[in-house]
Design goal:
By secondary structure, the chain is α/β, with parallel strands linked by helices. It has nine helices and eleven strands. This is DUF115 domain-containing protein.
Length: 296
């Protein structure tokens, strides 16, 4: 009895402190939310860039074309980008927004930017964190392609009491922790009130590609559907935007915990607003979203 009371009190106190910190975080980091674009269809497909997306694109392209599409990060490297002409694109990786005209260490970012400038001849909404507003990448896109509407989102993390978190989520003042861009993409589609959301290419199998070298440096092979494994090297996992410090194994698994916890919080929120999310990835380690399999 005493132990239950202690745990209940400790949980309440922790939620109270997290809620107060959340309000402070929102006050500092967030601004008046921009209205999200109205959905074009009742059903949407969120495309993660995991290797399993290759199977979906090869076998279920017609299904994807019947839904509103949401792509993320470097999907533009694929020839399917121009073929599918996605209506929505989401980037939350901070590395994009410290990239400059003279940067030479991220050719993938330069390739994505080039695709936005030269290939997008259809209306497309690009969702990025508010802190990206004055970045080189966003200024270049806004000046170079009027087909792309940039939508700035508040990226402050809300924790604490559920009622407070959900109120901040619905209003767009904050979101759950998005350790992976797929969580952010799903969150935005929930707030755009799609009836059904299908998720593809969310392998979330990073732990399978972790290695440690003889000097105890943690390495990872970050493989995407538009790449071949033989062409992707194992590289250090950097913990800062300037790529000078590398992660420890403990830090890497803590990051994985945050990623999967994000899906749990997302599922709880989606259920509360009556939006159904189906994980249709042919391979996935996400255990908090209902799995479905498309018929060939």
């Amino acid at each position: 009895m005493i132990e239950r009371v202690y745990k209940s009190g400790a949980q309440f106190l922790n939620s109270l402190i997290e809620s107060l910190l959340t309000l402070l975080r929102v006050l500092i980091q967030s601004r008046m939310p921009m209205p999200l674009p109205h959905r074009r269809q009742a059903v949407c497909s969120v495309l993660g860039n995991g290797p399993s997306l290759r199977d979906t694109l090869e076998n279920h392209l017609d299904f994807l074309k019947q839904t509103e599409l949401v792509c993320v990060n470097n999907f533009a490297h694929s020839p399917y980008f121009a073929q599918l002409r996605p209506q929505n694109y989401i980037i939350v990786d901070p590395n994009y927004f410290v990239f400059t005209e003279t940067s030479t260490d991220r050719p993938d970012i330069r390739q994505t930017l080039q695709a936005f400038q030269t290939e997008v001849d259809w209306p497309m909404s690009l969702y990025v964190p508010r802190f990206a507003r004055n970045s080189y990448v966003i200024r270049t896109i806004q000046a170079g392609n009027p087909n792309i509407q940039v939508v700035f989102i508040n990226h402050a993390i809300a924790r604490g009491f559920q009622w407070l978190r959900h109120k901040l989520y619905r209003s767009g003042w904050a979101m759950m922790q998005s350790q992976t861009v797929v969580v952010a993409a799903l969150f935005l589609t929930v707030n755009r009130k799609f009836d059904v959301i299908y998720l593809f290419g969310a392998d979330q199998s990073w732990h399978e590609q972790i290695r440690i070298d003889e000097s105890n440096q943690v390495l990872m092979q970050q493989l995407h559907f538009y790449e071949q494994a033989k062409d992707v090297a194992y590289e250090p996992i950097y913990s800062d935007k300037h790529r000078t410090r590398t992660d420890s194994m403990a830090a890497q698994f803590l990051s994985l915990h945050k990623a999967f916890r994000g899906y749990e919080v997302l599922r709880e929120y989606a259920d509360s607003v009556g939006v159904r999310i189906f994980n249709a990835s042919t391979k996935s380690y996400i255990d908090s979203l209902e799995r479905v399999k498309l018929q060939n």
